[in-house]
């Protein structure tokens, strides 16, 4: 917890500590200078950097370590909730949703139809929502009874025993492939 | 589907179809068929179950008709006294299907939607509606992908990074994973008692669905990062959108689209299992 009502993003704290430009808030340096809590966070980060620099100076660092870390690091607070970061998928989602709804509602042929386009789109969307709900209910109700019937039907055939005989071979093959994938990934490190 | 086989022929092939006669061979209590299309030309007093086969009803069935991976069509004398459940197939009838109970097609959202819009679910929908629903389905996929990336912001990038190193093995693992899950579900359903078999089969199905969804999002991310060359956290959502736009766009192509999407699904399951759902390879314990 921090006493600052608008604390700096951890990315900016690290950026200021390492002497590079902040990435989330442009005025981060001025804020850290004015705010005691955020200034203390930056100083802690500077001290941590110094400790780490001494501690790992004798350890060889792989060339692509920084990229690998950057690739899997979690979102910072600013990235997680920043609309600018998410705008591409959100805009694509909106475009897909609007296009799909417009296609279902049908193209307007004249002014009268254009007036009714909004209502048609709403009716389509409501129909889709109801259909999705019904689909979930249908699936939850029909799947268990359908599986029970399938189970009963399968008992009359040798399919179960055939599956049981083939299963160890499939599991063995899968385990070999998974082990191979892990070994290759380790060798690349 | 193969050519339709008459009911009496199926009854003579017990390895694939079984019929339990009630009193006479012409009125079986129930009929089961696997992988062979079925024509019900005589009344059935029990139910009809078909897996990976289509069913044509020319005579009434007193009980339920349950079809997995096939279509159901009605002839002039065909009727269902119980419920009609079709998983992953469609229902075809000249008018309203003569079904006394509930008609459910859980594999097809389209038919439910058409029913909601007061259009008969067995009528051929206009192509604009089909395209619209396909775009909305893609939008739903993208919404799921955005949510997954929001909540699994280290697991998904880790899975994408590892999958990009060994894509061939991931594909092979996908094939073997699907075969393994399928065999496990078949063995469980056929050999265990129903009260145990059904929940276990549902669990296997849930694992498969989770693997596909996780793997697909990792695949979108992998494609986007590979094409844009940007792997930083800040650019992850944009890379996800790029990868999704490419794979989703290809999936809309006729013929090639479904094939590519199916191949991507197999690869996705492989990515999920080879990367253990993006779990770190080494856990660091701080004493």
What does this entry show, briefly?
Chain A is mostly helical and 189 residues long. Chain A is built from 9 helices and no strands.
Set down the secondary structure blueprint.
The complex is a heterodimer of chains A (189) and B (287).
Chain A: H1 10-17, H2 28-34, H3 36-55, H4 65-72, H5 77-81, H6 83-105, H7 111-115, H8 117-155, H9 159-188
Helix pairs in contact in A: 1-3, 2-3, 6-8
Chain B: E1 5-6, H1 7-11, E2 17-21, E3 28-34, E4 38-40, E5 48-51, E6 55-57, E7 60-61, E8 65-68, E9 72-74, E10 79-80, E11 84-87, E12 91-92, E13 103-104, H2 109-116, H3 127-151, H4 155-165, H5 167-191, H6 194-228, H7 236-251, H8 256-274
Parallel strand pairs in B: 1-4, 3-5, 4-6, 5-8, 6-9, 7-10, 8-11, 9-12, 11-13
Antiparallel strand pairs in B: 2-3
Helix pairs in contact in B: 3-6, 3-7, 4-6, 5-6, 5-8, 6-7, 6-8, 7-8
Please, what is the average pLDDT of chain A?
82
Rg calc of chain B: 23 Å
Largest interface: A-B, 81 and 82 residues
Tell me the total number of β-strands of chain A.
0
Unreliable segments of 5+ consecutive residues of chain A? none
Structural class of chain B: alpha/beta
Provide the gyration radius of chain A in Å.
29 Å
Question: Termini separation of chain B (Å)?
Answer: 62 Å
- Could you give the order of the helices and strands of chain B? EHEEEEEEEEEEEEHHHHHHH
Q: What average pLDDT do the residues of chain B reach?
A: 82
Quaternary state, please?
A: heterodimer
């Amino acid at each position: 917890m921090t006493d600052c009502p608008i604390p700096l993003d951890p990315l900016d704290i690290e950026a200021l500590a390492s002497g590079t430009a902040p990435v989330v808030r442009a005025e981060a340096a001025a804020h850290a200078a004015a705010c005691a809590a955020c200034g203390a966070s930056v100083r802690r980060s500077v001290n941590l950097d110094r400790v780490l620099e001494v501690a790992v100076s004798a350890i060889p660092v792989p060339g692509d370590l920084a990229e690998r870390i950057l690739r899997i690091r979690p979102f910072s607070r600013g990235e997680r909730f920043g609309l600018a970061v998410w705008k591409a998928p959100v805009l694509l989602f909106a475009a897909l949703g609007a296009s799909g709804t417009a296609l279902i509602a049908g193209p307007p042929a004249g002014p009268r139809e254009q007036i009714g386009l909004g209502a048609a789109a709403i009716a389509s969307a409501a129909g889709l929502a109801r259909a999705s709900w019904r689909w979930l209910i249908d699936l939850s109700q029909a799947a268990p009874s359908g599986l029970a019937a399938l189970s009963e039907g399968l008992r009359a055939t040798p399919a179960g025993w055939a599956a049981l005989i083939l299963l160890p071979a499939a599991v063995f093959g899968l385990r070999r492939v998974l082990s191979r994938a892990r070994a290759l990934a380790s060798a690349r490190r | 589907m193969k050519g339709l086989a008459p009911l009496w022929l199926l009854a003579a092939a017990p390895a694939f179809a079984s019929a339990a006669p009630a009193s006479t061979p012409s009125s079986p209590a129930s009929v089961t068929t696997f992988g062979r299309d079925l024509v019900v030309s005589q009344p059935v007093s029990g139910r009809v179950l078909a897996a990976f086969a289509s069913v044509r009803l020319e005579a009434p069935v007193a009980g339920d008709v349950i079809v997995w991976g096939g279509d159901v069509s009605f002839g002039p004398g065909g009727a269902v006294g119980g419920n009609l459940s079709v998983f992953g197939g469609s229902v075809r009838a000249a008018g309203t299907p003569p079904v006394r109970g509930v008609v459910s097609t859980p594999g097809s959202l389209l038919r439910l939607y058409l029913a909601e819009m007061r259009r008969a679910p067995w009528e051929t929908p206009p192509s604009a509606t089909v395209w619209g629903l396909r775009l909305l389905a893609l939008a739903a996929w993208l919404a799921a992908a955005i949510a997954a990336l929001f909540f699994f912001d280290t697991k998904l990038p880790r899975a994408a990074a590892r999958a990009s190193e060994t894509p061939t093995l991931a594909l092979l693992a996908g094939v073997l994973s699907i075969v393994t899950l399928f065999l496990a579900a078949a063995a469980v359903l056929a050999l265990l008692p129903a009260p145990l078999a059904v929940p276990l089969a549902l669990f296997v199905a849930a694992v498969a669905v989770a693997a596909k969804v996780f793997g697909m999002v990792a695949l979108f991310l992998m494609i986007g990062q590979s094409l844009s060359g940007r792997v930083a956290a800040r650019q992850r959502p944009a890379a996800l959108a790029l990868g999704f736009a490419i794979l989703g766009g290809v999936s809309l192509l006729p013929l090639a689209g479904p094939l590519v999407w199916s191949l991507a699904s197999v690869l996705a399951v492989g990515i999920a299992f080879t990367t253990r759902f993006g779990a770190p390879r080494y856990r660091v314990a701080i004493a």
